[in-house]
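Our consortium's second objective concerns turning raw sequence data into structural hypotheses that experimental partners can test. To show how far this objective has progressed, the report includes one record in full. It was chosen at random from the queue rather than selected for favorable results. The single chain below, 251 residues long, was entered without modification.
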Amino acid sequence: MGKNSSIGWADNTFNPWWGCTKVSRACDGCYAEAFAKRTGFKVWGPKAERRFFGEKHWHEPRVWNARAALAGEQEKVFCASMADVFEDRGDVAIERERLFHLIEQTPYLIWQLLTKRPENMIAMAPQRWRAEWPANIWAGTTTENQDTFDERWEHLRQVPAAIRFVSIEPMIGAVDVRLGGAGELHQAIFGGESGPGHETLDIGALERSVSAARDRGCAIFVKQDSGPYPRRQGRIPDDLWSLKQFPWSAS
């Protein structure tokens, strides 16, 4: 099966648009903003215009869906690496609704919807999803430390999705996911900060955080160390580095 993503926990990456606004410390060294600037697009910040795409771009997930259907197994789609689906802006509302229709029409794709704004997820979802989101959605939020986990999990745990996950990346402090409120948390992804000015990943904090996720019964995916080339610096113990787990419904 083909792979259209460099992200280890996804098979494909899809962006309904480019651009976002920073909301917390984890955004300081945003790789997506840096990439957009390198490619000539100034799409970051509340006053910047977002970059939208045409029919060819929107057709790509249908190709992946057909491929997955032929193979008889679902493919995972990370949405979105260059935006936040649940950013509160009027100019993205039509594209967001277009995305929701696309999700419903591609049942062989698992849509990993990752946001730093989980407080908007229920309100911005279609009315038809209020009781239960489509089975092919994994709802996730990014958290970088205990404070952001505590705040964002309170919103994510109320989302009626089949799978809920947290991406603790960039990890800039230990996170004990056992401290969150009721609600099943199916997966925890861990990774250090990359790029210039990165904060070095605390391996001890990673070990404690993984242990807490294991106690809560999460699937655990250790993605990367910190640094300019963070895939593996040799600092993460092999028993942690080998953790590349997915929730029970993953293919």
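The partners drew two points from this record. The CA atoms of residues 163 and 249 lie 8 Å apart. The chain has a mean pLDDT of 93. Both points have been shared with the crystallography group to help prioritize constructs.
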